[in-house]
Amino acid sequence: MKFVPALLITVALLGSMPADAKKKPHQTKAQKAALKQADVAAQSIDLKDYLAPPLTPDNTWDLDLSDGGRVVIQLRPDKAPKMVERVKTLSAQGFYNGLNFHRVIDGFMAQGGDPKGTGEGGSTLPDVPAEFNDLPHVRGAVAAARASDENSANSQFYIMFQPMLKLDNHYTVFGRVVQGMPYVDAIQRGEPPASPTRIVRAILASDPAANTPPSPLPPVKAPAAALPSGPVTPSSSGTAPPSGTPQQ
């Protein structure tokens, strides 16, 4: 039979193996007890504490961009209720409609939400206190931009192109892109960009109008001004940026 030679080869190989290789690794009583304890601990972990909640229309933030794409963001009121409420309030007012992504650093993040387009503006509402949490600055994370004061977030936000975990617990992450990340990747780069990508409409999925196309925006010129707030890269001289600004 054809399988006999293969069987004989296998037996021969096993017979030629060192005796120690045939034995299972020896475990001490302490090691066995530790493994058993670890198994018990693992069974007691509730994975729901580490998973995002279900995506619901009232916590789905749709950004229709001037490049023709829609970015869908899951908001996390369970982690940053005040900042999520601010975004909802401003979106209902139409505040974000027409605003530029005024500061876009390749390999880092895209920042928008400033009516001045300079990084110095915000809404007329009071600043939002810091809500630092355990949501990481991974690709697609959406966080509140601020000045050096930890409690100075207002309307501006940024979306991460790449992970930057050193920003964790220094900025309020309040959501993450769950659909349309290629449109985020296509946002025009620059500080400010020569032809900035604009937010045509920011709207919650629970709004009936979210299912209708947004009205087109008139063309505007990108402002040329200093951009002191929000996430920045370190200077070429190697000196640290002002206190409170995240850096690559």
Strand coverage percent? 15-25%
How much helix, percentage-wise, in residues?
A: 10-25%
CATH arch. level architecture of the domain at 60-210: Beta Barrel
CATH topology of the domain at 60-210: Cyclophilin
Structural class: alpha+beta
Q: Can you tell me the CATH class of the domain at 60-210?
A: Mainly Beta
Radius of gyration: 26 Å
Name of the CATH homologous superfamily of the domain at 60-210: Cyclophilin-like
Kindly state the number of beta strands. Answer: 8
Mean of pLDDT: 83
- Strand line-up across the major sheet: 3-4-6-5-7-2-1-8
Structure annotation, total helices: 5
Biggest sheet overview? 8 strands, antiparallel
Contiguous low-pLDDT stretches (5 residues minimum) are 7-11, 224-228, 233-245
Cα shape: elongated
The termini sit apart by 66 Å
What is the succession of H and E elements?
HHHEEHEEEEEHE
Give the secondary structure arrangement, pairings included:
Blueprint: H1 3-16, H2 19-22, H3 29-44, E1 60-65, E2 70-75, H4 81-93, E3 101-105, E4 109-112, E5 141-144, E6 157-160, E7 173-179, H5 181-185, E8 199-204
Antiparallel strand pairs: 1-2, 1-8, 2-7, 3-4, 4-6, 5-6, 5-7
